[in-house]
Amino acid sequence: MFGKLLSYKQQGSKVDLLFENQKMVIEAFQEQILNVFVPIQSKEHYSKAVDFTKKSEVRLNVNWEDESVIIQTSEITAKVYDEGKIDFYNREGVCCCRDYRMDRIPAPCMSQETKKLMESEGHKVEDEGVPHKIEVVKAMEGDELFYGLGDKTGFLNKRHYVYEMWNTDNPDPQVDNFKVLYKTIPFFLTKRKDCVYGLFFDNTYRSVFNMGKESENYFYYGVDEGNLDYYYIAGDHLTDVLTNYGKLTGTVPVPQLWTLGYHQSRWGYEWESEVRDIAKKLREYHIPCDTIHLDIDYMDNFKVFTWNQERYDDPKQMISDLSNDGFKIVTIIDPGVKLEEGYDIYDTGIKNGYFVRDKEGNVYDNWVWPGTSVFPDFGNPDVRRWWSENQKFLVDMGVRGVWNDMNEPASFHGEIPTDVVFTDEGRVTNHGEMHNVYGHFMAKATYEGLKHYDKRRPFIITRACYSGTQKYSTAWTGDNHSIWCHLQMAIPQLCNLGMSGMPYVGTDVGGFGSDTTPELLTRWVQVGCFSPLFRNHSAKGTRFQEPWAFGNETVNIYRKYVKLRYKLLPYFYDLFYEAEQKGLPIMRPLVLHYEDDVNVQNLNDQFMAGAQIIVAPVVNQGQTMRMVYLPEGQWYDYWTREEEKGGYFLKEAPLDVCPIYVKAGSILPNFPNMEYVGQKEIRQLTLDIFEGEGSYIHYQDDGESFAYQEGEYNQYQFTIHANGVFCVELLHHGYEPMYESFRILYKNREVEIPFCGEKIEMNL
Ligand code: MIG
Q: How many CB atoms lie within 10 A of CB 164?
């Protein structure tokens, strides 16, 4: 294909390589990130994820060595050979990632006859053997573990599986062999015995990731359109690779504090009275809660940016009343706009040419909730501006966040054909290119609208996304079911989203489709209270899933874990500050911090919340005892404070117990009991200290505005020594009021320390 490597030309941090039949550009984004670009469809990147203004100038060493061109930063050496083959080495000279030099050996395709016959029994027959126009085949040495790839189903380690990137709404119970789901994050981390690296394939067309399913000798990436445009991301540890991916595609901004509280939702609360009733019950049962979600039923005939006047007397009044009781309202918005003359959103969109058109130039329609509907062309900046302006309708009502659904985009009468005309900024393109970024741009438009009208940090939840969407929106994992294997799957799925640069995520607690059981809901809330986005949501027609729907035992345990979440809110908030700074997830697989521990590399039923807490939930029906694994070191049982050493052990876990372990030397900030964020002014912070050596950085700001970006925040450093010496230091002082005092919990004792900004050191 490429032919012989003929020559190269270096220009700063960029090298143009000329092959007999092809050009290639290798460019350093920074010392630890190299971009490989082969202009096949266009000379430009047209990236929807990468902000090239963030690129740093890197000094490259470029030379011929034998038959290859060597390109070196201080961190990576890439050797480029004939046929466009590239090998990447790390600083230590280890070859981490090598192009495979032989041909792929695809599984033979089946005859049409055999296929037909199998299909008549209902089998789905797909040929994976078909070659792609663009393929990158990398050698597998045998020690590879793969993490990331977004929201894919199955287990933590993606090795031996095949996935496709094509945002898809499929409400069937999603199981291990699903290839597609709602999101496209074409990025993964590879952990090998003596190195780690990441690969990000920045191409939005439908693509394939065969992670060693076809062969034990290679894994490959394939796509039929666009350019070959990928980033090799180096780092000493998995955490460094993630941080670098965050520099490339952006990180999640610190959210408003209340969004980290508990969210109650259901499709659908149809009437104003129902919504008020849910709010009342949440307070009556003392289930702390900040947010109630309104699904499609609040709209007038599912028309976006309208409100149903029959079922709601006065939505603005309702929202204001609920807000006096601490509730924030989040409303759903779908992309599909009802085709109806006289409906202003439709009329304005038509007048300005904001909807996508078929090849013949007619506005394209399909079927979604409102019936025949048309689809905004979100790749067009004017359309995004218009969509942002429409958020004003919601903000004026008092709505505090927007939930973007159906933005794969989903359509009931078959998928939108790939040749339907879409826009990418100023350029005309098609659905094939814009499909996987449709949700990304819808979220971006929503973000800009909320930021403009509400001024606070926008809260958006999206179902579909692409790499980089983390800058604008949180995400949920779509339509799971109330089945035990979906509680099991929630852990690797959320962990892998975190390993894909998308930390603010959650599953529908209790399960969306199918009927939950008291036991399943109970075990789910024990996981849910640690997931960054904590929302109970269920489908119309399924058993009611609010915590009080199952009797006393369930509601009591449920409350215990929602309260735990509120107690740990400052800890989660600190993790979000770290996420914005470093691109690290909130909910983490143990392998992120213990990458060389073989016992955690495939651990699917435990996870970490930050670097201090390990959660080992029960995710099997009927189980009241489980095997726990703790990595090397000293740990404490969160509930009993018993000491645990690393290793495997059995732990009793009756229904009300979710085993939780905290690392020795941890200092966990706690909030007092509250029903919602902002109920109490918090002038004293509790510090729950677990004996040992450790230090912890705590972040504090107003919890909602952008002022923190101008330095209006405080940062405290707490340190505990093994001998009990404890120290508080104010690292940054930009926000008032500071805490007046700290309440220290240490070895069954309680100490109160007044604080006025000066450094404190004392013996506990
Ligand atoms: O096809 O708005 O995933 O959370 O409740 C159903 C109704 C459309 C799908 C979402 C789900 C939501 C539902 N929506």
A: 19
β-pairing, 460-462 with 401-404?
parallel
Is position 300 annotated as part of the catalytic site? no
What is the per-residue pLDDT across 711-730, written as a single tens digit (0 to 9) for each? Answer: 999 999 999 999 999 999 99
For 578-609, the three-class secondary structure string (H helix, E strand, C coil) is: HHHHHCCCCEECHHHCCCCCCCCCCCCCCEEE
Q: Is residue 279 one of the residues assigned to a domain?
A: no
CATH value at residue 734:
2.60.40.1180
Mutation probe of ligand 1 site: the residue of 169, 174, 267 with most atoms within 8 A of C-beta: 267
What is the whole-number distance in angstroms between the Cα of residue 33 and the centre of ligand 1? 38
From 202, 405, 508, 644, active-site residue: 405
Of 558, 559, 475, the closest CA to residue 520 belongs to: 558
Span 652-677, average pLDDT: 98
Phi/psi of residue 449, nearest 5 degrees? -65, -50
Q: Which tens digit of pLDDT belongs to each residue from 253-276?
A: 999 999 999 999 999 899 999 999
Among the listed residues 242, 234, 158, the one whose alpha carbon sits nearest the alpha carbon of residue 197: 234
CA distances from 676 to 159, 257, 286, 688, 699 (A): 42, 10, 10, 21, 20
- DSSP assignments along 515-565, one per residue: ---HHHHHHHHHHHTTSSSEEE---TTSPP-SGGGG-HHHHHHHHHHHHHH
Query: Amino acid identity, residue 396?
Result: D
Could you give phi then psi for residue 443, rounded to 5 degrees?
Answer: -65, -40
Six-digit token string for 630 = 């703790």
Domain-terminating residue out of 220, 249, 278 = 249
Intra-chain end-to-end CA distance of the chain, in Å: 70
> Rounded to whole angstroms, how far apart are CA atoms 399 and 293?
10
pLDDT in the model for residue 672: 98
The last residue of a domain, from among 225, 249, 273: 249
479 in catalytic set: yes
3-class DSSP assignment, residue 288:
coil
**CATH number of the domain within which 23 lies:** 2.60.40.1760
Q: Strand, helix or coil at 637?
A: strand
In a domain, 641, yes or no: no
437-461 pLDDT per residue, tens: 999 999 999 999 999 999 999 999 9
Question: Is 715 domain-assigned?
Answer: yes
Closest CA to 164 of 436, 399, 423: 436
Q: Which domain holds residue 727?
A: 681-763
| Element housing 678 (H / E) | none
* C-beta separation of 610 from 587 below 8 A: no
**Candidate of 368, 405, 538 to mutate for ligand 1, largest count of ligand atoms within 8 Å of Cβ:** 405
Task: Note whether residue 543 is domain-resident.
Answer: no
CA dist 592 and 497 (Å) reads 13
What does the pLDDT look like over 296-312, one tens digit per residue? 999 999 999 999 999 99
Ligand 1 is surrounded, with C-beta below 6 A, by: 267, 295-296, 332, 405, 463, 478-479, 512, 537
Q: Encoding tokens for residue 214? A: 């076809």
pLDDT at residue 603 greater than cutoff 90: yes
Q: How many domains does the chain have?
A: 2
Whole-number Å distance, alpha carbon 566 to ligand 1 midpoint, is: 27
Instruction: Tell me how far CA of residue 434 lies from CA of 149, 189, 225, 429, in angstroms.
Output: 19, 25, 12, 8
